[in-house]
Amino acid sequence: MNKKQAIVLTLLGVAFAFLFRNVVAKLLYDWSIDNNYSHGFLVVPLAAWVVWRRRAHLARLPIRPSLTGFVAVLACVSTLVVGLLGADLFLTRVALLGALAGTVLFVWGRQHLKELGFPFLLLVLAIPIPAIIFNQITFPLQLLASRFGELTISACRIPVLREGNVLTLATTSLEVAEACSGIRSLVSLLTLAVIWGYMTDSPAWLRWFLAACSVPIAIFANGIRVAGTGVAAHFLGPAAAEGFFHTFSGWMVFVVAGALLLTVHRLATWLGPAGRAKPEAEGLNVEVSETTQQGPAHHAGLIARSLIVTGCFVIASAALGTLTRTEATLLTKPLRTLPLSIGRWEGRDGQAFDPQVLAVLGVDEYVSRGYFAPGEPWVSLYVGYYRSQRQGQTMHSPLNCMPGAGWEPVARGRVWVQLGAGGGVGPDRVEISRLIVQKGLDRQLVLYWYQAHGRVVATEYWGKIYTVVDAIRLNRSDGALVRVIVPIASQGAAADQAAERMALEFVSTLLPVLSPYLDGQ
User: According to the model, what pLDDT value does residue 225 have?
Assistant: First the structure.
């Protein structure tokens, strides 16, 4: 590489770093506070080491640029703008890796990108998945670990009662929280499997097999940890489930899971078909002979393409500086001033949430009340308001939270709510989500929706899409989750229908009252 190329590539690196500086800073912060992805601090240096290890090979590859790479760069820069303005961290991080891959493809070519496939895979494993998907994964894992722990503890002849993700023993209660769901060991073990397959030059089939086996191994190991904690708490007391012992057990279980993974690798190597991965230096003779034909024209083209991408990054940085604005948050009235009298229902404030619950919810303002009407069962109302979702905050769906409290969904769907004149949310009727949950013999009807900016949305996925749209259109990413719960008096379709009629009547009365708080009307 001559001096001129080095200068141009340095400018390209500086422009890339400046454009994605906020994305990288937030990613580093998330790694530092989120133990599920703290392995990112090890993955990035490892990826850099792999690139450095292959530097001689990369230098010998012919430069065959692809215009597809520049198209990818433009698409990823656009995605970055949408992600930064539209309140989606995952989009910005995907844009970072996509822009990096597109740059390699446009400046150097497909063979260089192929050789860098493994470092890019490592970087993908260091990107936190979207919270809306993360919640869909962690809650089932919590319930799975709870069930496994219940069965194992019962097999040890220890009395145990499970309600959702809570195990009740004679001496204490154990909650399989999000941190104990096993997602942390699952992600870390998957990363370890990918790295181990590469470091041992395993054939492709074995690398995929190791990655696939890491998932059940992580789930099994975490179930053993939950069961072991329950047994220890029964014999040694609640202290065995807290503090040092709890943290130490997490490390020990991961060590055991790693040992199981290595055992699977040994067995698969012994029993599987013979063959090893091709050494990196294999097949270089043809490439070396081709690179000797690369003269000044190739180097000039490399410099020109690097300057084009650099200019694209500089223009995008300037555009973002112009478009970035302080977010407007407009909650016209505090939620606590929501009337206690709504139609024929009279409300009573519920108990304030524990600080730990609030930390999990990430909510900025909320109201939790019970409403009562003569001759009707009680109605539970919860409204959680988020001033901004641009830093990754996301609303917890009842589909996740209710099972965590021991309520198992038995039916789900959507229903229409008739608003009539003056509903205050646009159309005469809106669609909301409907859920029937059961714990033992108790059953409840749950109605919920996401509301913001004059819009009622039934599902969290459409809610997220509209959040991105409104963040760009209105410079607002605030919104609220509204949940209404009604007990179902007895079994049978007639009881379900009666509870639904009453709940829909309450919701149709509530929406015109609630709308001015959330929609700025």
Answer: 79
